[in-house]
Amino acid sequence: MLVVGLSFSTRLYKIAEPPHVCWDETHFGKMGSYYINRTFFFDVHPPLGKMLIGLAGYMTGYDGTFPFIKPGDKYEHHNYWGMRGFCAVLGSFLPIFAYLIVLELSQSHTAALITATLLIFDTGCITISQYILLDPILMFFIMAAVLSMVKFSRQRYRPFSASWWLWLILTGVNLAGALGVKFVGLFVILLVGLNTVWDLWRLLGDLSLSLVEIAKHFLARVVGLILLPLLLYVTIFAVHFVVLNKSGPGDGFFSSAFQSRLIGNNLHNASMPEYLAYGSTITVKNLRIAGGYLHSHWHLYPEGVGAKQQQVTAYLHKDYNNVWLVHRQGDIDSQSGTPDLVRHGDIIRLEHKETTRNLHSHLHEAPLTKKHFQVTGYGINGTGDINDLWQVEVCGGRKGDLVKVLRSKVRFLHRATGCVLYSSGKTLPKWGWEQVEVTCSPYLKETPSSQWNIEDHINPKLPNISLSVLKPHFLEILLESHIVMIRGNSGLKPKDNEMNSKPWHWPINYQGLRFSGVNDTEYRVYLLGNPVVWWVNLASLGFYLIMVSVASIALQRGFSLSQKKIEHAHVLKSEGGLLLLGWLLHYAPFYTMGRVLYYHHYFPAMLFNSMLTGITLDILLKGCDLLLRPPYSDWLQRVGQMVFLFSVLYSFYLFHPLSYGMTGPLAHELGSVMAGLKWMNTWEF
User: Fold this and answer.
1) Continuous segment of H or E residues that includes residue 194
2) Strand ranges in 399-512 using DSSP code E only, listed in sequence order
3) What is the CATH number of domain 274-461?
4) What contacts 616, CB < 8 A, 6 or more positions away?
5) DSSP per residue over 558-583, as a string?
6) What are the transmembrane regions (predicted)?
7) Angstrom distance (rounded) from CA 544 to CA 538
8) Cis ω for the linkage preceding 18 (within 30 of 0)
C-alpha cells in the first residue's frame, strides 16, 4: 500500500502543470487528435500507444480540436489532463511492477523496497510519466510482460492449472502491447523468448516427463507466446486502419492503391481519364515504398553539387510542386478535339507546371549516389534542349501499348545518356529540404526505385473512369505500412538545435532533455534522472559482477557456506542474471543503430538496472555478517539501509524542481532553486 500510494502521488502531483505543450506532446497529442477525428497520418511507431492516448482523451472529454503545433502553445480551454493523466497512471505502475518482480525473484521484501524506492523517487521516471508520450505506455507493457513471465515461471510445479494459463496468456498479451507501442518492444520479446527456450531445455532434461507432455508444454508456449501476440498485434493494425479512414497528412507516404481507401483523398471513389495523353496535367509517384512524388521547386543545387540548375527531388507529401505537364517531343500538342494518347516507346517532355522548367538530366554526378547522373529542372516556359527528352517504357509492355493511369508501371529512359529516372530513397541535406534524392541511373535493371505510376491525371478532353477497382486487401496494407515505418525509423534525423546523445552518455546521467522553457520567465521542466539513483545503479552493476564472480568461485570450490548464503549465491546467478540480460537487451542494441538517439531511449534499460540494484544491494548489506558478528552485523545492515534511503530521499528533495517545474533565476544565478546543483557541466537546467 505504501509503494502504491507513493507511486501514484509522485506521478499525479501537478499533472496539469505546465498548461502548455511540452516536448514530444506536439507529436503524440496531435496523433491522439487524429484518432478522435479519424484522420489518417504516418508515424514511425506502431499505433497502439497513440490509439490509447486518443481513447483516453476521448473518454475524458477532449474533442480533438487542439492543433499541437509547437512546444509552448497554451492548451487554454482544451481538456488535456485526461491524456496526461492516463500516461501518468501507467507510469505509476512501474515501481509497483518492479516491487512485485523483485519480490518474486528474490523472496526479499527489502530488495523489493530498495527497487521501489529507486523508481518512486527518480526524477527522470516521474518526468517521463507525466506527459503525453509513448514511453510510459511502452514501459508499462514491458514491465507487465516481465512480471507475467516471472509469475508464470513460479507456476512450473502446477503445469496447465488455471493460474499457469492465466500468467502465460498475460505474458503474450503484454508482449503484443509492448510491440504495438514501439518496435523497441522486440527487446522484451527476445528476453521472454530466451527465458522460454531455457525453460523448455530444463523440461527436456526432466526424465519424469514423457515426450507427449513435453510436446504439450511446447505447443502451449507457441500458442500463448507466439500465435496470441501475433493475432493481437495484427488486430491492433486492423482497428487502426478501420478508425483512420479519412485522408490526412500521411497519405503521400503510401502507394496510390493504399490512398484510394481514404475518404477525402483525391483517389477515393475518384474518376479520371484511364489512359495518359499529351497535354495532360499529372503527378508521378515512385513505386518504391516511401519513394515519393516527382517534385521540383525554385531552389537551385548549391555550388559544387553538379550543375547549378533547379533541384528535382522526390517529396513524400501532396504538394502543388508535384504537378507536371506532358508534352510531345516537339513543342506542339494536338489542338484537335481528342488529344493523342501516350504509348510505350514514345518520346516525351515533362514540364514542371509551377516553374515551367523541363525535367532534364546530363552527365554531372548525382548529389549522393555518385555513380548516377544528376536530374535537374532546365529551360524556361518549356524551351530547353535535347537533354529534356525521355522515352516512356511500360514495364512488361510492347511498342504501341497505352499507359494506364495508376495501374501501369512506367519507366522514363533519358534519350541523351541512356539512363533511367530513379528515386534513390536517400535523404538530401538541408539544402535539399531533406527531401528524397532523384537521379538518373545508368543501371537499367527494373526495380521499384526506377518504376513510376501516374497518380493524378487531369485532361478535360478525355472521358473519366472510376478507380474503385484499385482498393488493396488488408494483408497488402499491413505489409506496406510496416515497410514504410521501418524505412521512416531508419531515416530519422535530429531536429535543428537539438542534442543527439550517445548511448554511453545514458547510464552516467551525462545529459538530460529540455521538456519545457529556456529563460527565467518561463516554466522550466528538465528530464534528468535523480543523480544518486542513477549513480547507485551504475555502481551496483560493478558490484553485481564482482559479487556473482566471488559467489560462483565459492560454490565451485565447495567453500562451507550457510544455507542462506548458498541461496543468496543462486539468486545472484539466476535471478540477477535474468535482470542483467534484460538490461543488456534494452541497452546494447542502441550502439548498433544508425538512427538519431535520445536520452529517453535508456529508460526501459534503467528499469532493469534498478531491479538488479535492489537484489545486489540487499545481498551486499546482508553480507555484513561475513565481517561482524550479530548483533553488530544487523546494526551495520540497518545503518546501510538508512544511509541509502536518506541519500535517495535527500537527492529527490534537491532535484524535484526538475520534474515538477521551476521559474525564476537559472541554476548558475543566485537565488535559483537549483543553485549549486549543476554537478555536471553538461546538465542544461
Assistant:
1) helix 185-204
2) 410-414, 420-427, 436-441, 452-458, 464-466
3) 2.80.10.50
4) 540, 543, 544, 547, 572, 576
5) T----HHHHHHHHIIIIIHHHHHHHH
6) 81-102, 108-126, 133-152, 164-197, 218-243, 532-555, 576-593, 599-621, 642-660
7) 10
8) yes
What pLDDT shows up at residue 518? 80
Residue 175 is which amino acid?
L
CA distance 685 to 672: 11
What span, in angstroms and rounded, lies between the C-alpha atoms of 243 and 440? Answer: 40
Q: Give the pLDDT of residue 467.
A: 73
**454 with 405: CB under 8 angstroms?**
yes
- Parallel, antiparallel or unpaired: strands 452-458 and 281-286: antiparallel
Domain with CATH 2.80.10.50 in the chain: 274-461
pLDDT at 538: 97
List the end-to-end C-alpha distance of the chain, in Å, as a whole number.
Answer: 34
Residue 221: per-residue pLDDT: 97
Q: What angle separates helix 109-120 from helix 632-660, to the nearest 10 degrees?
A: 20
Strand partners, 261: none
Give the separation between CA 254 and CA 261, rounded to whole angstroms.
11
Contacts of 546 (CB under 8 A, 6+ apart): none
- Given a contact cutoff of 8 angstroms between Cβ atoms, the answer to whether 377 and 310 are in contact is yes
DSSP-derived pairing of the beta strands 271-273 and 452-458: unpaired
C-alpha distances (whole Å) from 247 to each of 34, 42, 260, 343, 497 are: 11, 11, 9, 32, 32
Determine the Cα–Cα distance for residues 281 and 333; give it in Å rounded to an integer: 13
| DSSP states of 519-530 | STTS-BEEE---
Find the angle CA(233)-CA(235)-CA(241) to the nearest 5 degrees. Answer: 110
3-state secondary structure at position 94: helix
User: In which residue are the cell numbers 497513440 written?
Assistant: 50
Task: State which amino acid sits at residue 106.
Answer: S
Average pLDDT over residues 321-325: 94
Q: Tell me whether strands 293-300 and 310-315 are parallel, antiparallel or unpaired.
A: antiparallel
Residue 234: pLDDT band by 50, 70, 90 thresholds? very high
Query: How far is it, in rounded angstroms, from Cα 621 to Cα 617?
Result: 6
Cell 501537478 identifies what position? Answer: 14
Give the angle subtended at the CA of 87 by the CAs of 83 and 92, to the nearest 5°. 140
Query: Hey, what amino acid is at 43?
Result: D
Q: Which of 577, 601, 571 is nearest to 588 (CA)?
A: 601
Reduced DSSP (H G I as helix, E B as strand, rest coil) percent helix, strand, coil of the chain, to 5:
50, 15, 35
- What are the pLDDT digits (tens) for 96-127? 999 999 999 999 999 999 999 999 999 999 99
Q: Are 236 and 51 in contact (CB under 8 A)?
A: yes
